[in-house]
Amino acid sequence: MLYYLAKRLGLSTVVVCLVVLVLFSLLYFIPGDPATIALGPRATEEAIARYAEKMHLDEPVWRQFLIYIGNALTGDLGLDVFSDRPVTAIIMERIGFTLALVGAGMGWAMLLGIPLGCLAAVKPNSWIDRITGVLSVGTIAVPSFLVSIWALLIFAVHLRWLPAIGAGEPGQLGDQLSHLVLPAFAIGLSWVGYLARMVRASMLEVMGENYIRSARAFGLHPRRVVFGYALRVAILPTITLIGMGFGGMISSTVFAEIIFARPGIGKLIFDSVMARNFPIVQGAVLVATGLYILVVLFSDILIAWFDPRVRESL
Amino acid sequence: MSENRSESETGVPAVDATGLPDHVTEAEIRESAARERREKLRMFLTNWQGLTGLILVTVFFASAIFAPWLAPYDPNALDVPARLSGPTLDHLAGTDQLGRDTLSRILYGGRVALYIAAIGVSVSLVTGLILGMIAGFGPRWLDSLLLLLFDTVRSFPTIVLALATVALTGPSLTVVLAIVIITSIPQYARVARTATLTLRNTDFILAERSLGAGMARTLLHHVMPNVVGPLLILAAMEVPVVVTVEAGLSFLGLGVTPPTASWGTILNEGYLVIRDAPWMVIAGGIPLILTTLGFTFLGEALRDIFDPRMGKGR
Question: For the whole model, what pTM was predicted?
Fold first, then answer.
């Protein structure tokens, strides 16, 4: 396990370094002066000179890169072009909104999708299995940003049940929760179907195993057999799926935040792209990508913890 | 065939030129292959998902290709007095804030989607196929290097990478295409690599190698025909992703530039007037959903018929 852990961690570190390299070199792939590109056409001479100095643009490229990595490791992602505030502080203000949204979206999808998958697997070809099947195929194919727009149209604009934009007044939990409902619904919807069919497929496989038959023969309550024994094994492929799908989750979070004007990381990246505020784009993209890498790493370690066979395969 | 003949010339007994046991004739083999093909066709024709998918996909292709003849108006023709009208006999899907006919814009938007899907999917499929086969067949270090590259690319959430790139280059269809290709190559490459790895030590590949065939010949003539099937199914499943990315980026104003019509720009313009003209986001979303549904249904039906082991839930 330790060997696997070390190897897996090493791999993630290399990938993170490459990600930083890609983000860093994006600036240099584009022809032109990096400072002008990063600050946009409206930047003043003075701002460009200051930026050039701050980013050490007079140094060779490889040194600039090392300086950037070194700064990033100590939590320094540069300064906002317009306000001169540290990028790290700006990201920290916003990241809570994103994490709450991702957590809520994933949370309700798991709470609904996993039991649905179990029920469908326990009674194959029953009405609940059929409904789950149709539901999952239907929801998987619908782009999440369209769900966001239509949810906004139906529940906020037409029915006026829920607020359309913003994240709620700070400090008022009820208000903040009501602002969370629609975006969380939008990003979680396709995951309900996704999780349900994944759990169903692996559950069907596990239910045929000998130890499940034994558990049944011992007279355990069917609910106990399904949720206590079978699900424990059947959930493993689903954990991998959740880890891998987290990137898509981040993409749909970006859309949901923009559509519902929620001040998270996604909205931050989008606004900074529009304002051509490249240090923030660079920093926020790095954080979002790092988050994804962390989640995949965590899910891989979790799987290896549960399933010794995985440890051998890396 | 030629390699089998040379094998019998070198004196391998018991097996005739076709490599079959004596009592099975070639005609019988052909007959059984034809029977299998008929069986698969029958499976497809009785699969409501596959048929629905096929119809939707056909409609998508036809409406995009014949858009200039089908569209009732020029997609950019202004009719200011009729601006923001709802569905009427003159404008079946209503008009936007400049009085342009939404139905015509949807039909022309389908061309953008088709363009991105056709080029994006085919280029990434071919590149992914080649890289994947090289990773699976080449030396170990090359395999590790390519895997590391794929992992790095996959670590970026697609939309986040697109945002970072557009921040520097500005919005354009070419950038969207590049992002789509770069982010989907690893998908194809991984499938091709896994399939190649399992083929690598099969008898017919070993025989080919021992006869002195080079890597290019082996891959092109013997590995590729066996790998390309699952990739084509994957391609059908990737079309919705590609179309969604294009629509999403255009929705954010980062894809096609005005006045070009795209499903994403229609949704964007509709989002801005969602309180006054809700039918625009409805009309703009329907073709997107039908297209993604169509390709998902088709891809899943094909997968279930040709490759049942690929499992549910990708």
Answer: 0.82
